[in-house]
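Batch job 17 of 40 flagged for manual review because the log was empty.
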Amino acid sequence: MSTRAGFVALIGEPNAGKSTLLNRMVGAKVSIVTHKVQTTRARIRGVAIEGESQIVFVDTPGIFRPKRRLDRAMVKSAWGGAADADLTVFLIEAHRGVTEGVDGIMEALKDLPKGKAIVLAINKIDKVHAEELLALTKAMNEAFNFVETFLISAEKGHGCEALKTWISGEIPEGPWLYPEDQIADLPLRMLAAETTREKLTLRLHQELPYQLTVETEAWEERKDGSCKIDQLIYVMRDGHKGIVLGKGGEAIKAVSTQARAELEVFLGRKVHLFLQVKVRPNWLEEKERYMEMGLDFRDGNE
C-alpha cells in the first residue's frame, strides 16, 4: 500500500476550537488551549498518523479584524497557512452560527488558489439542538461549495475520527515528511515558551491582556539527563510586571511550577525552569520578537 502525506490548515474565527482539534488529532498537546481568544500566534504544526497517511495539521491564528501590527501579522500567517496547504478545514462554532466573521472568512476563501479542497467542520455540536445543526449545515453549504461537511466536538472527540479518516484518504500520495515518532514541527525552545505563555494566560486572564510574550533565552542539556531552561517574560509596563510577579512572587512561582510540570511530562525528563520578567515597552514593534514567533514583521501596510 502506498503512503500519503500532506498539510491540512485549520482556519476559523478566534476560539473556534482549532487548537483543541489539533491536539485531539495528534493525540498530544502541541498547541495552546485557553478560554481567551487569539492565544495562538504562530503557525503550529502537529503531525498525526492515520493508517498509511501522515497528516501535518497546521494550527493557524484565528482570523479576525486586525488592528495592531501583531494582529495583522497573525491574520497574514493564517491565510498563508491556508494557501500553502493541500487541504483546508474551516471550523465554525455550532452555537454561534453564521457570524459576520464567518461571512468574511467565506468571502476570503474564494480567493484561495483554485482546486484547493475546503472542508467545513461545525464544532461544539453538543451545544445546540439537531434542528439548529441541520439548518446551519444547509445555510453554510448554500453559501459556499464545501467538498465535505463534518459535525464534531473537538473537546469531546465526537466526529473527529471520521474527519481524520476522510482526510487521510484525500491528501496526496508520497513519502512521509517527518519521522514516525515526531508529533510537532516546532522548535523545543518555542514549545517551552508557548507552554509558559499558556500558564500565564490562564492565571492572569482577567488582569493582563495580550501585552506579554515569552522567549526561551537559554537551553542547557545537563549530564544527569535533565535540562535547564531560562526564559524571559516581556511586558509593556511596570504595572504589568507586578501583576506577573504577584504578591510575594506567588504568581510567577505558580506559573513556573505548572509550566515545569507540563514540560517534564512532554520531554520525559527533569526540567529546571527559571523565569525572569522584563519591562520592554515596544516589544510589539520589534522585528526580533516576530521572528521568534515565526511571524512576518511586515504587516502589509508598509
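Reviewer: the log was empty due to a logging misconfiguration, but the result itself is present. The beta strands are 4-12, 44-50, 53-59, 87-93, 117-123, 148-151, 184-185, 212-221, 227-235, 271-279. Unflagging and moving on to job 18.
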